[in-house]
Design brief:
Elements: H1 2-11, H2 26-39, H3 46-62, H4 69-94, H5 102-119, H6 124-149, H7 153-172, E1 177-179, H8 185-191, E2 193-194, H9 196-223, H10 231-253, E3 258-259, H11 260-278, H12 280-290, H13 292-297, H14 302-328, E4 330-332, H15 340-350, H16 363-381, H17 386-413
Antiparallel strand pairs: 1-4, 2-3
Helix pairs in contact: 3-16, 4-11, 4-14, 4-15, 4-16, 5-6, 5-7, 5-14, 6-7, 6-14, 8-14, 9-10, 11-12, 12-14, 15-16, 15-17, 16-17
Length: about 425
């Protein structure tokens, strides 16, 4: 009797978690997967994509210059610095924590960059590297007090927001403003535009790299005995991405060309997305954000992961500060202030990263900044008061959090939280 039971159990097909399945059934498979995600409360980037289309159509109807190549080029430059900071915010939000100090960190590191490059005569490359290292050190301090000492992240980074701003004023000195050379290496970061042919070549390289990585991932899944998408599907996906990239490059070429700042920003987004989805370290970040206690019992060094994420967050804050200084040709007492921190956090949340931790993507920074930047840019074109901009941005942020909360309840009810 035991043999029969054994045989029947061995003959039973193994249940496969649908979340592990790759959409293998063509268009029908994608539709079924999309419906399953909607029923489970996983809306993904759908709300922000719809919102972005509505925003663009609205402002285009009010002012046709909104979608002109020159204005879209300006929009790309406007979102690059704060968007880079937002990439680091996404990593912290995935832990279910917050970093209120990145704005001050961007201002402080911008001041370090300006002092070293202008006052001390260091080369642009060395000064930029020093600024990034300074940001990493600041992040390590935040992570130490949060992960090792046990101070809540809100308090640690709130203290950092105040303290690093004071250090920024000290570094800048009595004058409070340091101007960067217009033709210097720092200025080139946000004032360099690739020639038309180079822009298309960069797009082709991006598509080729995406296709190779996607095919490599499919081979790894096949070797592990998991369903993998066919090569034809990978090629079709790469072609669709290629069309979108080449259209964007073509439009930007009608202005001044593909901006280096945009390439850097999207490069950060893509690189960290690959780290989160394709590496063990990325899976550890999601695990800690989903359930820190369970992650610890699984053998993950939770403290180390938390410290490293804050290091990366502040480093990205420093990168954003460098780009902001490059765009303005100067660093002053208000650098890193104003609404930079709020916009960076809002972009991550509006783009779809959950405030509850464990769910999101660095592409949230790109989508969210497109929404915020489009609102700001469009209102400037139609000459609406800045007060209206703040109210609309706040409403969009609230809507994003409401959608996140409702989606979370949907995932909990379906057992996918």
């Amino acid at each position: 009797m035991s043999t029969e039971v054994k045989d029947s159990s061995s003959a039973a097909p193994a249940a496969v978690d649908p979340r592990l399945l790759v959409r293998e059934s063509g268009v029908k498979g994608y539709i079924e997967d999309f419906q399953r995600r909607l029923k489970g409360g996983d809306l993904g980037a759908l709300p922000v994509a719809i919102g972005l289309v509505i925003i663009w159509v609205t402002f285009y109807s009010l002012n046709e210059n909104f979608l002109s190549p020159q204005n879209l080029s300006n929009l790309a430059l406007q979102i690059a610095a704060t968007g880079t900071i937002s990439v680091g915010i996404v990593l912290v939000l995935l832990l279910g924590e917050i970093d209120l100090a990145v704005g001050s960190v961007s201002g402080l590191t911008g001041a370090v960059l300006a002092v070293l490059n202008v006052n001390q005569g260091m080369s642009a490359g060395v000064a930029i590297l020093a600024a990034l290292v300074a940001g990493a050190i600041v992040g390590a301090i935040h992570g130490f007090f949060f992960a090792r000492v046990g101070v809540p992240s809100f308090i640690v980074t709130l203290a950092g927001l105040i303290g690093w701003q004071g250090l920024q004023l000290y570094v800048l000195g009595k004058e409070g403003t340091i101007n960067l050379p217009y033709e210097g290496g720092v200025a080139m970061l946000t004032h360099t535009f690739f020639p038309h042919a180079v822009g298309f070549a960069i797009g082709a390289v991006i598509v080729a790299v995406y296709l190779l990585l996607d095919m490599a991932a499919s081979r790894r899944r096949a070797k592990a005995g998991l369903p993998s998408r066919p090569i034809s599907e990978s090629v079709i996906r790469a072609l669709l991405i290629g069309v979108a990239i080449f259209v964007a490059v073509y439009v930007l070429n009608q202005a001044e060309g593909l901006p280096l700042a945009l390439v850097l920003f999207i490069g950060f987004v893509a690189a960290f997305d690959w780290i989160l989805r394709r590496t063990r370290y990325g899976r550890m970040i999601f695990a800690v954000g989903g359930n820190a206690e369970a992650a610890s019992r699984a053998g993950i060094n939770v403290r180390l992961v938390r410290i490293s994420v804050y290091v990366l967050s502040s480093t990205m804050g420093a990168a954003g500060g460098v780009m902001a200084a490059s765009r303005l040709f100067a660093v002053n007492q208000s650098s890193g202030g104003n609404n930079e921190l709020l916009n960076a956090i809002a972009a991550a949340v509006i783009g779809g990263t959950s405030l509850f931790g464990g769910r999101g993507s660095t592409y949230s920074a790109l989508l969210g900044m497109l929404v915020i930047g489009s609102i700001s840019n469009g209102m400037y074109l139609v000459q609406l008061d800045s007060s209206v901009q703040f109210m609309i941005t706040g409403a969009v942020l609230l809507a994003a959090v409401v959608i996140d909360s409702v989606s979370r309840r949907g995932r909990q009810s379906s057992g996918r939280a």
